[in-house]
Amino acid sequence: MSRTLLLLAALAAALACRPIPATHYYVLAPPAERAGTGGERPDGEQPDGVRLGVETFAVDPPYDQDRLVWRVGRDASEVGFYGHHRWAASPGRLVATALAAGLAGTPGLAAVEPVTVGGRYSAVLAGRVVALEEVDLPERQLARIQVDLKLFDAAGALVWSRLVTAEAGGRAEAPSDVMRQMQSAFEKLLAEVRGELAAVLAGSDSVDRD
Asked: How does 108-146 read in b/e, with b if 16+ C-beta sit within 10 Å?
């Protein structure tokens, strides 16, 4: 009996000495050339255009948590979660905030920001994160992001809606490699949304300009 207790004590001591894995946190961000651009004139005044508020997005399960999601195969019904690789904020807030920053300077926009209490907006962009995941394929990994976007005017009428999907792939040796692919996928999605939003704002008579 004493020998068993000694073995258990030795095992507990060995486990106690094992280092705890570090937790890694990730964000999405607009490209460097988009960061900090707000569409302002050199004199600091805002140009005429739409003041856009971006709401925090809803998130479909299983992406509605901070753990990174992966699956083996595009259409696999089974998903997995990384234990020590996580988003730095809720995915709905993280994607919406990054999109708002990246849309700054879009033709037709005077200003864009995450929706705040008391904020006055001539249009609001709402969204739903449909997919935000790593997809493991036989020869490579994919980062996939899919967002369902809806643009409403100040009266709440739907002006534009679009399901946007973007992917970026390659060989990934670690989750951090997949996150670099996710950043690339987000930049593709951002470029597509900027183009479509600019076209919608140019052709819409239901969105008020300042």
From this structure: bbbbbbebeeeeebbbbbbbbbbebbbbbeeeebbbbbb
pLDDT at 44: 40
Q: Terminal CA-to-CA distance of the chain, rounded, Å?
A: 82
Quickly state the pLDDT bin for 42 (edges 50, 70, 90): very low
Please tell me the number of Cα atoms within 13 Å of 49 on its side-chain side. 24
Q: Class of the 24-203 domain?
A: alpha beta
49: part of which helix (H) or strand (E)? none
Question: With bands split at pLDDT 50, 70 and 90, how would you rate the model's confidence at 74?
Answer: confident
pLDDT in tens, 128-168: 999 999 999 998 999 999 999 999 999 999 999 999 999 99
Type of residue found at 5: L
Q: Which pLDDT does position 47 carry in this prediction?
A: 58
Residues 6+ apart with CB under 8 A from 127: 54, 55, 57, 58, 95, 96, 99, 147, 148, 149, 150
Residue 190's contacts (CB-CB under 8 Å, 6 or more residues apart) are: 30, 31, 34, 98, 99, 102, 103
What is the per-residue burial (b if ≥16 Cβ within 10 Å, else e) of 71-86?
Answer: beeeeeeeebeeeebb
CA distances 35 to 38, 99, 104, 126, Å, are 9, 11, 8, 21
Nearest to 161 by CA among 121, 126, 109: 126
CA 92 from centroid of its chain's CA atoms: 7
